[in-house]
From TrEMBL:
Belongs to the Tdpoz family. It comes from Urochloa decumbens. Pathway: Protein modification; protein ubiquitination. This is Uncharacterized protein. PROSITE patterns: BTB (PS50097), MATH (PS50144). Residues 178-245 form the BTB domain. Residues 15-140 form the MATH domain. InterPro entries: BACK_BPM_SPOP, BPM1-6, BTB/POZ_dom, MATH/TRAF_dom, SKP1/BTB/POZ_sf, TRAF-like. It comes from the Eukaryota.
Amino acid sequence: MARQTNSVSVVEKAYGTHQFKVIGYNQNIYSFPIRSGTFNIGGYDWRLVYYPRTRSLDEIDNDDYIEVDLELLSKAEVRVMVDLFFINQVTNLPYSVACTNEPMKLTRKSVWATCDLMKMSELESSGYGRDNSVIIRCDLTVILLPDVPETKSMYEIEVPPPEMAQQFGMLLEDMTSSDVTFEVGGKSFHAHRLVLATRSPVFKAQLFGSMRDTRMESLVICEMEPEVFKVLLHYIYNESLPSMDHGADRANRHEMLCHLLEAADRYAIERLKVICESMLLLDLDVENVAMTLAVAEQQHCKQLTNACLEFMEPPEKMEAVVATDGYNQLKRDQPALLFKVWESSVHRRSSKETRADARMA
């Protein structure tokens, strides 16, 4: 049982509204500030400050303007969002005159100032200034930063990794539950019809198709080596390949991969086919490229075929390949494929020359 600690942090918000009515604002000819009463929102004390008859920041504009500030009175650092309104005293509807789009940080005695909210002349001619009074509404959203949460100790029950792949692999070794036997090159292999049919459409047709023989308990596999069929079964049950390292004998490994590619194509196991292509590509060298090309062409592996042709493109590589036994066998068994090698080489060189001429131009 593994030990684990756990903590939870939650950011919350507090909302509140304060309405401040200023009476006799027009008589304040000296423009001294008028302060609201203290109000508390989110656990912090606030105050509005009203400044009549302030000058515009625009030096050309000589009109008097209204300014309203928000002041934090508490000794704290607070993040807050503000929306400031004038209330139309005819319709009683609010009119937003200033707001913050994102939380701002205020500390004690710091001020959120709003300049040039509205001209005094406009206030007096509209419904916002009435009977020598103005009503200001301030909506606050206070971001409540959480305290450092308490860390609690708890226990976690460790769940073991999935076992199905391992159990299927063990199933291959269990001959007591098998229901079909394959005879390959004088060796017998026990397997399970449902597993094979699930993994390969070819096996499915052989074992459960309309032409199957229900009494048939043994199938003979021709033109395949026992070791190749053994690796094929291992992949079917385990979705992975066994280790195929043969020490310094790299050629044996490459030959096994070629035969396994043929088997994967024969039984339509597409992922195994791609795995073999990828491993053959990594193993590609002068000695085996001709044999690999022959297998790739036969199994319609276009990517592997192109990789082999590109590998042989440089003249020095091609000269070395021509001297190998694999090339001689390719020339003897598939002479038409050599024409494809030559044609590809000419085409690639022509393309390179065309690109070089274009760059020089």
